[in-house]
Amino acid sequence: MTIPVFPETSVALKGKKGLVVGIANDQSIAWGCAKAFRALGAEVAVTYLNEKARKHVEPLAVALEAPIFMPLDVMVEGETEKVFERIGKEWGHLDFLLHSIAFSPKGALHGRVVDVDREGFQKTMDVSCWSFMRMAHLAEPLMKNGGTMFTMTYYGSQIVVKNYNVMGVAKAALEAAVRYIAAELGPKGIRVHAISPGPLATRAASGIPEFDELMDKAQSQAPARSLVSIDDVGRATAFLALDGAKLITGSVMYIDGGYHIID
Ligand SMILES: NC(=O)c1ccc[n+]([C@@H]2O[C@H](COP(=O)([O-])OP(=O)(O)OC[C@H]3O[C@@H](n4cnc5c(N)ncnc54)[C@H](O)[C@@H]3O)[C@@H](O)[C@H]2O)c1
Fold first, then answer.
1. How many domains is the chain built from?
2. What is the DSSP string of 111-157?
3. Which ligand 1 atom is the nearest neighbour of the CA of 198?
């Protein structure tokens, strides 16, 4: 009897090509994921929001040896398309996509959901939900050999989390989009996941009032009694890009030390 040979851990994504959207700095969840993809041998293309953000992201893209490094503000008409056009031209295909962006104007995020105006709602949904749907649409024809799509969500989509407000509404829509797109693209061998990390002290999180309280609660009540790091999120996310995870799709994957099972 022969024991099956699994691929060497360090080269398990060797030859795979992925796009990582959402690195702002070395605390970004997208950076934790990009490091893990790279450590497993994948090549990653990296985007940055705008010129102001570029100087923070460029050294990280250099460390990742990213062959493609481009601006991408999903609110700028045509920029998303340009990124996928370049990937199509230079790589000809794509194996994975990581969407790790969200935004809500202060006026919308810091108020009650019942008071959110149309403009605040539309901007929140545009950046935090529709941009993923659009990227999935553009990635589909490039995922010729199948692939994996990821987006970042949060538990405030499922239950009311104090101060998460309209972002909870956007994340609920995002998780529903993941399920529909997973069903639509599954026959092509494309898997789609929402990754739901526990609270992490990132730039985006600093926009949520009393975020420290969320962190304290997670640390003291999560079954693992531990906060998660961007590397924890990165490693678990990269696992889902492996062939060994090829029949896992459409899920909301909690990487939160088990916090979501506690009342
Ligand atoms: N930090 C947490 O506790 C936590 C928990 C669960 C989920 N998330 C989610 O993880 C994702 C990444 O956030 P993070 O915590 O790493 O913070 P972050 O601030 O490092 O990343 C947010 C990213 O969104 C990008 N972005 C905002 N508007 C954009 C636009 N118009 N076009 C393109 N990019 C834009 C920013 O440039 C930045 O890179 C978000 O979806 C967030 O909701 C965060």
1. 1
2. S-GGG--HHHHHHHHIIIIIHHHHHHHHHGGG-BTBEEEEEE--GGG
3. 5
